Amino acid sequence: MITDNIKQVWEKVDKKCAGIRRNPKEIKLIAVSKNFSTEDIEAAFDGGIKDFGENKAQELISKYEVLGNKVTWHFIGHLQKNKVKFAVRSAEYIHSVDSVSLANEINKRAEQLNKIQKILLQVKTSEEETKSGIEREDDVFSIAESCNELKNIELIGLMTIAPFTDNEEEIRKSFRYLRKLKDEFNLRGFKNIKELSMGMTSDYEIAIEEGATMLRIGTAIFGHRDYSKN
Ligand SMILES: *Cc1c(COP(=O)(O)O)cnc(C)c1O
Asked: What is the pTM of this model?
């Protein structure tokens, strides 16, 4: 089942890319495996997925202890400072950096492990109260400036979660804003900010149209999450 789901997602990605003349090779498909088992992850791996996203540090580290670096781990959830060491130990990418103090902590832990931690800044691109991320545009730039001073961090992109709505234009607006911010960064000389982590099960085709380079897809690959299990 998981293998078929992956095929279907890739088919949609390829079709969408063909329609807008984008190269699907520039898009990384991250399977969001939160609440799913390491067996499910293995199944997705056998189906051709190399990248997996987790949103809880504890869950990430316990899966990391089983699978190690056989797969590439992405941390995509809210990160508390006391959990940073787990994320840095296991994740190649941390998508959810939203403050200088968090960046400093990541830098410190990365230095201890002799690692350059790849990070993205999470930006709040909608009015929705529940969404996290950096709210003010000025802050996005100033936090990025601070990250550039930290030698064990490499800022490679921006991440956002679109509003939870059926209104396609609202969703598109949110992705388009992130894209515009990236372009502005590039104009300001931040040449390493190349990645746009945006698009989930319900909106990834819109995200592709708006320039996404990293899709974070859970449900369409693994099925519905059963939160009663934990
Ligand atoms: C759960 C989650 C996803 C995947 O959501 P689906 O709708 O299941 O595809 C993507 N991004 C983040 C930050 C998540 O927490």
From this structure: 0.97
